[in-house]
Amino acid sequence: MTKDTKENARENSVMEKIISLCKRRGFVFQGSEIYGGLGGTFDWGHYGLALKNNIKKAWWKKFVDGRKDMYGVDAAILMRQEVWQASGHVKGFADPMIECEKCKEKFRADQIEDKKKCSECGGKLGEVRQFNMMFQTKVGASDNSSATSYLRPETAQGMFVNFKNTVDAFHPKLPFGMAQIGKAFRNEITPRDFLFRQREFEQMEIEYFIRSEDWEKYFEYWKGEMMDWMEEIGLDMSKVHELEVPKEDRAHYSSRTVDFEFDYPFGKKELFGLAYRTDFDLKNHKLDYIDEPADAEAMAGKGKSTKIVPHVVEPTFGVDRAVLALILSVYAEDKKDGETRPFLKFKPSIAPVICAVSPLLKNKPELVEYANTKVYAPLKAEFGRVAWDDNGNIGKRYRRQDEIGTPFCVVVDFDTLTDNAVTVRDRDTGEQERIKVADLGKYIKEKIL
């Protein structure tokens, strides 16, 4: 076996372990699985949804609630077709597609090495053609062209078309931003690599409106903010790299793009992106802004209002890719007594479950009662992300919670009934310590911060 073959086998093994864990522990399931699955779609299970929501909450806290210059919006997925005509997506949102003349399998032409021979059946590949990735639909009962709409391929346009509404409602001064978390849809030719490339996915996106002369300053500023947030949620920053995207590979609206790439097992691929969209979108939507003089200038009678079209710096984060990169960042294994223990080393602040509460034996009513009423219920009321686990022996519970990424397991035993203390086990080290029940809330809160 060659070095490259061994490396590919190792990488495939990592992804297989991650995909298996995600299904086994209720993170992610194949979409429509009982009917054979639908390519490029996935359903989120209980713990995957919790993790995804924690990531979104962390993003919203930093970029919206933690700032004075950001305004949230949740725009409709369906918009008039004129929106997508003005944005250039109807004409320009396409990938190069190539089809096998024999088996009719379709490929993205920019992702295959041999553009003449089919990798599936060996047949001849046809000519490369452009394939528009927007999902088209009809709105209402009419079937004519005026009823045509699209599932949005990006969340950005929902913010641009609400630019005037936001300015009229809040009267913000430049620079300011709009932020949105929402679904987007792309009819990918070849969805692949688990959560990496899907047909339905979720974005966390910001449109930051600035004066044209300030774009370089704010581009660098947002680059730093994005890196800080990635580190905050626990991404392995040694696997994150910046790529200056060349002109020929940039989106039609971008004058500069930096991709933050991640070392996935299947290669170094895009994680998040930062684009300078200039005034492309607001100009095409025929929107402008009255730029007022600064307060000091106005009070001094200097300066005057001018009508401008703001420029835009756009930080874009994929929720699904963030989940995948985070799981890959925190996945770990250790070996003891010939057994391998896989576990997820989430930060307590981002973990789907903060702690799990267990009675040592589930067939002892006194332990179950104490664990339920005096430990689980108060912790659940205070922290929310607390699990009850009495399935199997204590060793199996530890292994299960380790794979979920639960930082702490709290066990009520017979000594608890007399000393009002519980055993708290640390996920990463396996170490255990006795903590008074009265001090549990404080103990966990200090660990989260």
From TrEMBL:
EC numbers: 6.1.1.14
Gene Ontology MF terms: ATP binding; glycine-tRNA ligase activity
InterPro entries on file: aa-tRNA-synt_IIb, aa-tRNA-synth_II, aa-tRNA-synth_II/BPL/LPL, Anticodon-bd, Anticodon-bd_dom_sf, Gly-tRNA_synthase/POLG2, GlyRS-like_core, tRNA-synt_gly
GO biological process: glycyl-tRNA aminoacylation
One Pfam family here: HGTP_anticodon
Keyword annotations from UniProtKB, A to Z: Aminoacyl-tRNA synthetase, ATP-binding, Ligase, Nucleotide-binding, Protein biosynthesis
GO CC annotations on file: cytoplasm
Domain Aminoacyl-transfer RNA synthetases class-II family profile: start-end pairs: 16-348
CDD domains registered for this protein in UniProt: GlyRS-like_core (cd00774)
Taxonomy, superkingdom: Bacteria
Enzyme class: ligase
Family: Belongs to the class-II aminoacyl-tRNA synthetase family.
Protein name: glycine--tRNA ligase
Species whose genome carries this gene: Candidatus Nomurabacteria bacterium RIFCSPHIGHO2_01_FULL_39_10
